Structure formats: structure tokens, C-alpha cells
């Protein structure tokens, strides 16, 4: 069983994961409404992945006997002016999530909660992949500028496959 402080912070992280899911659903909607169907598909998979991350935390908390509190999910601001801006916002969000998981790891170390620290390492590794993936897309979008290359990149983004290892 984890202590109350760790449980509280994990509960906050659970809420952040649900917010992430909601944010990516909004980004998917913006892309679909703007005609970027490949990017809409990419963000929809991201939405589903973040939801699975939330349930991964949820199940860990249940298994640890922690009390779960479902908090209010803030409405995301999804008023973008370009696909590049949308992906830059995604990277900024992922960097914030990385910081949040690092803070959780620091807390686990401070409290000598080896179970939670080991558990959180999966998320730390996942964040490395998340930031790299979005960073690569941003680099491509910057290379093509506002030209027709955006449509090629958008088409490539529709090829993303669901990550079957997320809920493991």
C-alpha cells in the first residue's frame, strides 16, 4: 500500500492523463475540421493512448489500495492557426507531462516507495518516445513550411498504428 501523499499525487497525475486524452481529442477535432484528416487520425490515436495511460494509473492505484478521486477536467484551448502550432502545443504538453512524471519519481525516491518508483519508470520511458515522436513531426512541418508538403506529411500521419503495449 502506498502512503497518502503518493496516492494524492498519483490521483493528480490520473487527472492530468484524462486531460491529455481530452486535449488530444480536441486537437483531433481541430485537425478534422481544418481538413487535416491524417493528423486527425494521429491525434485520435494519441487520445486513446492517453486514456489508456490514465487507466494504467487507475489500476495501479486500485491495486495499491489508494483512494481514487475523479477531479474536474479542464476544457482545453484548441484554437490553432496552423498544423505546426497544434503540434508545438502537443510537444509543450508532453514536456509538461515529462516534468510531472519526473516529480512523481522524485517523490517516490524521497518516500522510499520502491514499488511506485519502479512502476513510474514505464511512464518515464514512454515520455521519451512521446517527445521524440512529436518533435520529429514538428521538424518535418518546419522543413516544408506552409507549402504543399504539409499534405504529404498529413497523409503520412494517417499511417500511424495503435500502440498495443500501452496498457501492459
Question: Can you give a write-up of this model?
Answer:
The protein has a single domain (4-157), classed as Ferritin. It is 75% helix and 0% strand. It is elongated and about 55 Å long. The model has no long low-confidence stretch (mean pLDDT 92). It is mostly helical. It has helices at 4-34, 37-63, 83-110, 114-144, 149-157. Helix 1 packs antiparallel against helix 3 (83-110) and helix 2 (37-63) packs parallel to helix 5 (149-157). One of its GO terms (molecular function) is identical protein binding.
Average pLDDT over all residues: 92
The helicity comes to over 70%
- Give unreliable regions as ranges: none
Number of DSSP strands? Answer: 0
CATH architecture descriptor name? Up-down Bundle
What is the overall number of helices? Answer: 5
Q: Specify the CATH class.
A: Mainly Alpha
Sheet-strand content, in percent, reads: under 5%
Which SSEs are present, and which pair or pack?
Elements: H1 4-34, H2 37-63, H3 83-110, H4 114-144, H5 149-157
Function: Iron-storage protein.
Keywords: Cytoplasm, Iron, Iron storage, Metal-binding, Oxidoreductase
Binding site for Fe cation: 17, 50, 53, 94, 127
Question: Tags for this entry?
Answer:
75% helix; mainly alpha; 168 residues; elongated; 5 helices; 0% strand; single chain
Q: How is this structure best summarized?
A:
The protein contains five helices and no strands. Belongs to the ferritin family. Prokaryotic subfamily.
